[in-house]
Amino acid sequence: MSIVRPYGDTTGDGMVQVSFTLPVTHDKRAEGAAIQLANKMGLDPAMLVHAKPMGEGFTFFVVYGRVTHLVDTEKVQVVERDYPLLSAKDVNAVIKRKLRRRLSVVGACIGTDAHTVGIDAILNVKGIAGEKGLEYYRELAVTNMGAQVSVPELVETARAQKADAVLVSQVVTQRDAHLQNTRAMTAAFREAMPAGKRPLLIVGGPRFDELMAAELGVDRIFGRGTTPREVASYLVHALLGDQK
Amino acid sequence: MSIVRPYGDTTGDGMVQVSFTLPVTHDKRAEGAAIQLANKMGLDPAMLVHAKPMGEGFTFFVVYGRVTHLVDTEKVQVVERDYPLLSAKDVNAVIKRKLRRRLSVVGACIGTDAHTVGIDAILNVKGIAGEKGLEYYRELAVTNMGAQVSVPELVETARAQKADAVLVSQVVTQRDAHLQNTRAMTAAFREAMPAGKRPLLIVGGPRFDELMAAELGVDRIFGRGTTPREVASYLVHALLGDQK
Amino acid sequence: MEKLGLDPGVVARARALAAEAGAPVVELARSHTTVSVERAVLRLAGVRGADSDGIPWVNRLVDAVRADVGLGHGVSVPVFAAMAREGIDDVTVLAQKAAAGAVTFGVPAKKVELVAARRAATRAANVGLKVVDRRRVERERLIKRFGDAPRRPWIYLIVATGDIYEDIPQAQAAARAGADVIAVIRSTGQSLLDYVPEGATREGFAGTYATQENFRLMRAALDETSKELGRYVRLTNYASGLCMPEMAAMAGMERLDMMLNDSMYGILFRDINPIRTFVDQRFSRQVHARAGIIINTGEDNYLTTADAVEAAHTVTVSQLMNEFFAHEAGLEDWQLGLGHAFEINPEVPESFRLELAHALLARELFPDAPLKWMPPTKHMTGDVFRGNLLDGFFNLVGALTGQGILLVGMMTEAVVTPWLSDRDIALQNVRYVLNGAGNLHEDFVPAPGGFIQRRAHEVLGEAVELLERIVADSMLTAIADGTFGIMKRPADRGKGLDGVARHDGDYFNPVTNALEGLR
Amino acid sequence: MEKLGLDPGVVARARALAAEAGAPVVELARSHTTVSVERAVLRLAGVRGADSDGIPWVNRLVDAVRADVGLGHGVSVPVFAAMAREGIDDVTVLAQKAAAGAVTFGVPAKKVELVAARRAATRAANVGLKVVDRRRVERERLIKRFGDAPRRPWIYLIVATGDIYEDIPQAQAAARAGADVIAVIRSTGQSLLDYVPEGATREGFAGTYATQENFRLMRAALDETSKELGRYVRLTNYASGLCMPEMAAMAGMERLDMMLNDSMYGILFRDINPIRTFVDQRFSRQVHARAGIIINTGEDNYLTTADAVEAAHTVTVSQLMNEFFAHEAGLEDWQLGLGHAFEINPEVPESFRLELAHALLARELFPDAPLKWMPPTKHMTGDVFRGNLLDGFFNLVGALTGQGILLVGMMTEAVVTPWLSDRDIALQNVRYVLNGAGNLHEDFVPAPGGFIQRRAHEVLGEAVELLERIVADSMLTAIADGTFGIMKRPADRGKGLDGVARHDGDYFNPVTNALEGLR
Ligand code: B12
Ligand code: B12
Ligand SMILES: Cc1ncc(COP(=O)(O)O)c(C=O)c1O
Ligand SMILES: Cc1ncc(COP(=O)(O)O)c(C=O)c1O
């Protein structure tokens, strides 16, 4: 069945929980305003179960209720993995056979972002979730530039290392920093290198929308919970084509 | 200003939090389905920040994001208190002056509902939130029938006590029990007594929508956090008219 | 390990007072019967099913006997005498005939007939009790085969969809998610029905009807899940209400493992007549004792209507009374899930330490009882974030004070009956606390003479004082005065009083005889 | 009360080893200066403002001096010699001239000129130090006048809008809601800027630029709120980064009350050169000591990159090093907000007791230091319900182990910088725990030889072993090897190394002299 609704305690009940703050002083009208918003979000009936004044002129609300929306699972848009998940051994074998040299990967956190744990999880031998990172792959040559790398430095290093792929991590998202930095990065690569010579551009981080790759000018986006094997498998798929 | 938006940490950011369960097994499509629902609720962009498989075939989601809806505080519908809030002394004085006998009030939890704490808070001397209950008012004659009272018993007692007002509490709402019971009650009073002779019908309980009075056939609905004084003031207002 | 330094003399005095206060109530219970006690006997003796209006044949039969000879002799002799007289050997068939008005009942005048009827009744009742015994053995066998709950406290989760066929998968999911005990909440109206509905049911409000068939279906489903999980998952339902004795009999026959059974809950919170309740309660507990069922008492409820600090000692008094009545009915300590709750207003200074003091007092007063530890409900609000926090601290008190049965608190307590996700969040909460702080009790040693010890001593002292007053005035007066949960319940009021009868000199009840070891 | 039974011999040995490991680093710091140290001196000596590109005049002036004579003599003598020579008596005017290339700098060859320049520099620097002293007295006066925070731990809340004019009302609201300390988080890029931005700022990412004007604005706003609330609300910002010394000077002049100041944070988490950091750190701490500012160290950060159980002893080692460096720089125990954190994976069995053991170890090793207790961050997820629960247990550890400064954890840690409502929910959480269980420490007595004591002893033992290795290999090697937070930072790498210079024989710094009590 492709149509589903949220489930509270009975199939089809459509129940959801919502919380938010409105910049209004707490009174009956404020509660009515909260219900109005919940109604606009599709909660009908909307049960206002909690209202708490916070500081001056703000009220926090918790609302429960039934949403009228239907979810059509057939119409869901996701970036499905469209390549086979390979073992480290197979990745190495494919590179050896098809590329005949080590595949060069350059990684960095760009801009002012200093969150390296994510990119390190992908690159460092230690890896994550029981999987070893890309450094562990014999046929990958990994350069991990660390944090707060500027875009020109990154482009320079990619050139110097003859990078086949550039892996960029962005964790801070306030004021869309991650989107701005990614756009600056892809623009710089487009400017610095002709289309055919450009490395594969990959960004990752917990708050990216994986559907935005084209919009940001990257080849692929990896989100929350990515593992190194997925990235390695994608690299050989995207750079070396079909594995047969 | 009458147009406001939810407030996360900046004026106008529109940020809200939502959680719900979908009856789907956790995978990328499920996450996409959750985002689809969030989008339909008006979250754009919607950040899926948590997804957890629960049992077989269910996944729980937490989503944060900006809602596009505006809240127009001028268009808020609420039942505002449209009568003056009187002290116990004034209530007694008005009844004494205008009615010249004690005003008779019959209260009960009807149906299978056994939650008496709410109606007791309104009726018993002890009261709630520092206010004494209606029994404390010299000019009110209160009959508290307790819990699990059947509608025929209630009508009978109202008749016997020559009730000016009947106060009914409903706390259990599963399968709309409160609405069904209230409708059964008002129907019985309509059947048993002619329009002019019927007592004022009041229901209360934490999950009522105060806007539904007409629909349920009652004169007034009291919700979460009602205090005895509000009820007493309403009674003299509704039964004895303008206080001047 | 003793942590409160309670004075054994004071503890002994409290128990002695409870026994003294309880004795007249036991006497009352021993000298009366009720329609439900008699129906329970007939259920054990084999009456099954209901008429086309859903009225069980046991009700029709007891009503018919009562109309003819009253209840004072018990129904067993009139019924089995009629069987002999009418030449019917299926007691359900007799009930059907009786309902049609085709049978009259009486106590045989002839000694031989009387003896024969008693013997036949005893034989029939014993068939039912054998089923109960077999179930008990079966439970012990399955626990051995599947394994028991992996740790104390047992994690206790409720299902409450109103539909047994929605309840079953939810209960199984809850068990898979870690529940050791599943409780099927009963529909709001049921406890005031003076009959037990029949068959599988799909429409309850905020709970599912307790019927023998629903018991059977759920137990079978959980047996399957127990096997799958390699641990025996216990099933709970409610005895309390107008049909306490019958619920107990059905629970015994369908291998339920725990039953909510409080000596006063029905009186206080369902306005059932006190005498009716005390009589029903004693019989039902005798059946539970035989069935190896753990009872859960309801002191937690007092703290939803009364203040949890002011009324703390009423919980202690009630626990002592429940213990006395339970022992008197043959229950052993391991069967006493005495209730208490985390219901202190969180705004009260030192609220958490007060909770610890109260919970530890219960633990040390009843060292061999499992204790049923109830989560916050009264001070839960629609602030579900705060709710989950309070539940976490509730879980911590449970772990610190060695509670036996942990009712899992839900963040949506003030909002809805639990959603699937609420249960999952709640279990995650329990698991975090037990996993991270389950052994913290080793490091928790209330300072000698400190706040916690002082508070525990104070509550025990107040309990002793209250018991003294109760001994002076009688339990029935105390209940009438609103001592428990501020509910005033006079002995001559409340529902179901008309179903009570004083024993005649020849009162005969084969089940009571068997349970009391009489012949 | 001693709860862990630590061996005083082992504790003394740990401290002696830390001193031994730290001595060469102090020697390094004493024999080097940095561009930022010199700029800090000039700020105290009165240089203000920035050029039209926003480059502060202190930067322009130090760069000019450096280009002419290098940094090895310190900038004070060349600058004040030039002032005398050029007949300028406003040092900012000199900076502007120098920037225009209109001044050349040198160390006067003549003794009298040298002495005169030193004297002038000393006089100017003392003006700045007097401001710092006045601010300190003012703080003490305001605390007396308004009253101090009502209890320990101090409740520490962050604001992070990026816009000082949004931060202010949020900070005031947070103070009204109960915060004792407000921290203004800095924009993500700032710590790598080798200059301090000027003026009020409205655009930062995930934080607001630290500028002297922002300091002033926020302190003034909080003074107002302190008055309104009848308690002095403290203000915190960050020293760490390439401008540590200047930040310290500005904080002293604007009466900030606490500063994040770790001896290694910049090295490990911002890849700043180790030598640069150690030199800057020593100077900045000397200024903090004078200003009566409480420092907060950053050991909590190690547990976001390393495992909190495996690396527990690295936190202890770092605390000991931070203590040694702090004492050496003149800070007193009450000024040492040594950092640690609740970062053990909640799935780890006994996680909560392990947290207690670690927190108590810090408490007992540093009995007179306030200690900064950081909430869970690494194992926070988008499950905000679970998040609020973890924060509650974090608060409980804080209360049980007498932490001095409690950073309030937010349920949205893994999601967004805190929303207004997150802060409110978080404060409600803290209040519940402190109100309900704030005195529970009285009842918490780790079992002698039990899990908590054993774990604390084990961590201390591992810390001593690690210190022995560090003494053998040197701190710089240990840092290069990834000992702390698994970050490998060789001494010859990292940002800002080019801003370091070895003292020449005639190095002169009037601020250091004053702070070290030299003439
Ligand atoms: C650890 C941490 C730090 C450490 C970083 C240490 C280090 N060397 O990385 C320290 C303490 C230094 C730090 C500092 C700050 N942090 Co911080 N930090 C975190 C924290 C707790 C965990 C992040 C983490 O390590 N996750 C674990 C990794 C494995 O997950 P991940 O990054 O998502 O990576 C996975 C995927 O996303 C993906 N992936 C990620 N990158 C890439 C790249 C590629 C190419 C691919 C293929 C995949 C991929 O694969 C990874 C493995 O599955 C988060 C809160 C939280 N619980 O999430 C805050 C958080 C990220 N920090 C935050 C902030 C604001 C800061 C500060 C500005 C101030 C502050 N509040 O502390 C500073 C300044 C940092 C700066 N200049 O960037 C915010 C960001 C808010 C936002 N959304 O904008 C968060 C969310 C906390 C909060 N709520 O305020 N932080
Ligand atoms: C106390 C309590 C009980 C006590 C009741 C004791 C008693 N004598 O009342 C006991 C333990 C017996 C009980 C039993 C059950 N309860 Co109960 N109980 C609660 C609890 C914890 C508090 C309710 C309360 O007392 N609130 C305080 C009073 C003062 O507030 P109030 O009722 O809202 O009343 C105020 C206003 O609403 C208004 N008002 C109310 N009535 C009226 C009437 C008039 C005329 C006016 C003017 C105003 C007015 O004024 C009052 C004062 O401000 C709530 C959970 C919660 N925290 O809310 C669950 C709750 C109400 N119970 C619930 C349920 C399902 C049950 C049970 C079926 C099983 C169970 N889960 O325990 C049983 C059976 C009850 C039955 N047959 O009705 C559900 C209801 C779910 C739903 N929405 O349908 C709740 C929400 C818990 C839950 N999440 O499952 N319960
Ligand atoms: C002892 C006891 N019996 C019964 C119940 C529930 O009874 P009812 O089915 O009447 O709601 C409770 C309440 O939770 C209880 O504590
Ligand atoms: C000691 C210390 N300094 C500074 C910071 C923050 O520095 P930055 O402004 O570089 O993010 C932290 C992190 O919270 C810290 O612990």
TrEMBL record, chains A, B:
Residues 102-244 form the B12-binding domain. It comes from Winogradskya humida. Pfam families: B12-binding, OAM_dimer. InterPro entries: Cobalamin-bd (IPR006158), Cobalamin-bd_sf (IPR036724), KamE_N (IPR028991), KamE_N_sf (IPR036843). This is L-beta-lysine 5,6-aminomutase beta subunit. Coiled coil: none annotated. PROSITE patterns: B12_BINDING. It comes from the Bacteria. The lineage of its organism: Bacteria, Bacillati, Actinomycetota, Actinomycetes, Micromonosporales.
UniProtKB/TrEMBL annotation, chains C, D:
Signal peptide: none annotated. The lineage of its organism: Bacteria, Bacillati, Actinomycetota, Actinomycetes, Micromonosporales. Residues 4-513 form the D-Lysine 5,6-aminomutase alpha subunit domain. It comes from Winogradskya humida. This is L-beta-lysine 5,6-aminomutase alpha subunit. It comes from the Bacteria.
